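Hi all, posting the design record for the shared folder.

TITLE: backbone redesign
STEP: 1 of 1
STRUCTURE INPUT:
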């Protein structure tokens, strides 16, 4: 079994993190001397790395608008592939090889309301998914006997399903434990929530003996629409920008 993670977006996220870290630490608060304008005070910010089910790796920038309200804008990378996973689901006589690809990298904007001195936060917002696709392929691992005829896995064929979520924008609802802006220099917080995804477009491809499954596309599409809530469990390591 092989796991694969595409690297270009990871490099982009790392570069963004480094550039933000350097630039934000070199910005000095400035005062506007013109009497017609109020004094401008630099907002307290944090820059953070996060990892979990909303992204294998992500980076975000946090800002407190006031002691109760905050904003987060970030980018999350999620491009995961699993190849050659063998299973019989603990119930069947035959094993199958499963290939799975999940892509759902996104850019998100979140608004937060802080409770208990910011240690607990109610979070809502939305994410724009520039990848939002699930693809799975299943093929028997071993020979299979059908009507006294011995068939190889290639002769039996494979079954492949692709689900492409039609809308790229998904709302987010959740809660967070830990402060958006660290009290000291660094802190660790935890996000628990969900994205609500759009109705997916389903395509089925099957070959050889198990072909002609395209008639099941509508049935499978209706079943998948019942599972449009994508759970979010994410750790966030934040650095305070003074």
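Okay, here is what came back for every position:
SEQUENCE:
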């Amino acid at each position: 079994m092989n796991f694969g993670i595409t690297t270009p977006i990871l490099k982009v996220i790392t570069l963004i993190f480094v550039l933000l870290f350097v630039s934000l630490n070199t910005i000095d608060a400035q005062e506007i001397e013109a009497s017609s304008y109020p004094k401008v005070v630099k907002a307290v910010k944090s820059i953070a790395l996060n990892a979990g089910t909303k992204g294998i790796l992500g980076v975000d920038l946090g800002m407190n608008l006031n002691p109760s309200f905050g904003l987060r804008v970030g980018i999350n990378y999620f491009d995961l592939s699993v190849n050659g996973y063998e299973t019989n689901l603990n119930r069947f006589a035959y094993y199958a090889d499963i290939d799975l690809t999940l892509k759902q990298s996104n850019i998100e904007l979140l608004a937060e309301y802080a409770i208990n001195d910011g240690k607990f936060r109610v979070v809502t917002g939305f994410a724009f998914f520039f990848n939002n696709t699930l693809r799975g392929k299943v093929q028997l691992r071993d020979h299979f006997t059908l009507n006294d005829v011995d068939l190889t896995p290639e002769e039996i064929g494979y079954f492949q399903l692709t689900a492409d979520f039609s809308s790229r924008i998904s709302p987010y609802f959740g809660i967070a434990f830990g402060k958006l802006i660290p009290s000291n220099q660094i802190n660790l917080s935890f996000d628990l929530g969900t994205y609500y995804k759009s109705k997916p477009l389903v395509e089925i491809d099957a070959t050889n003996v198990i072909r002609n499954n395209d008639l099941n596309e509508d049935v499978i599409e209706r079943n998948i629409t019942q599972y449009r809530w994508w759970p979010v469990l994410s750790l966030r390591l934040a650095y305070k920008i003074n």
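COMMENT: The chain has a mean pLDDT of 80.
Let me know if anyone wants the other runs.
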